[in-house]
Amino acid sequence: MTIPVVDYHCDVLSKMVKDKSISFADDPMLDVTYKRLQEGGVALQTFAIFLSEERGIPRFEHILDQIDVFTSRVVPVQEGVRWMKWREDAASLEHAVKAAEQHPPQSHALQPWGLLSVEGVDGFEGNLFYVKVCYDLGVRFLGITWNHANWAADGVMEKRKGGFTEKGKQLIELCNETGLLLDVSHLSEAGFWELAERSKRPFIASHSNAKMVCPHPRNLNDEQIRAIAAMDGRIGITFVPYFVKEGPGPVVPADVLPHIERMCEQGAGNMLMFGSDFDGIETWIQDLEHPGRYPAFIDLLLARYPEDLVKGWMSGNALSFLSRHLPAKPV
């Protein structure tokens, strides 16, 4: 059975900004390509703007470089990736996905959409005006940190394990005012709880798994999972092998299932989605190396779980969140 897919995290743009010869159409250097989005039935792919340490001190111009890559080399490909910016866009796609699920052959005909996020606010250089500029340019999600500390907050790997700075608290207010949505993957636990208290809007963890299944620092503990469920946020199960399973040996798609089950046990079954982290990883889950593998993964899920749940995990939960919480298109 073919079910349309929403994937909430990939790092294509950071690869493409380094190598101008890479084509998004079907380049073998990429995990995520236009061809593979179509093969996998991906209806919406979130493209993260990640500023690699290889480029030195993060600057605002580095963020703009990746927005340019998205607009000039991803959106124009073939029939084009449609750019999702407004709740009306999400509602339109939500309707199309439901129609495709009722008539499965149509799912392959869905034109994929793209959503822009920033992974770590370092490149804004502490300037909240730059944040507003990126909103105006079409960015809709902000991951507050990568693994370490920045001007706004501490990342999950920062040894002092702090929360938000004063400027970071102002960032929360700005995002709540403008409609920029926040992503806590990579954020310290102290920052997580501070954001849960301060934010007027629900937030997401775009690519994080269950810590009780695999105790990697980047994964969420049960209390965090329950908190996201209580606010009707979203959690993107990720395919980073060492977030999925400890120890030697290959990681296989079935190893993802205990994370799904743990989150369901914590009341987050209707808040789950997927955030693969394709193109941000150098090792892959066996037989789940790129978006073209999604149909086989969906078959694995359908063999174990009710169809309605699987449809929610693959796209319904993510799209319902977006259709409620993205900003409305200006009249």
UniProtKB/TrEMBL annotation:
- Quote the SUPFAM superfamilies the UniProt record gives: Metallo-dependent hydrolases
What Pfam families would the database entry show? Peptidase_M19 (PF01244)
Transmembrane stretches in the record are: none
Q: Which domain of life is it from?
A: Bacteria
Q: What is this protein called?
A: Dipeptidase
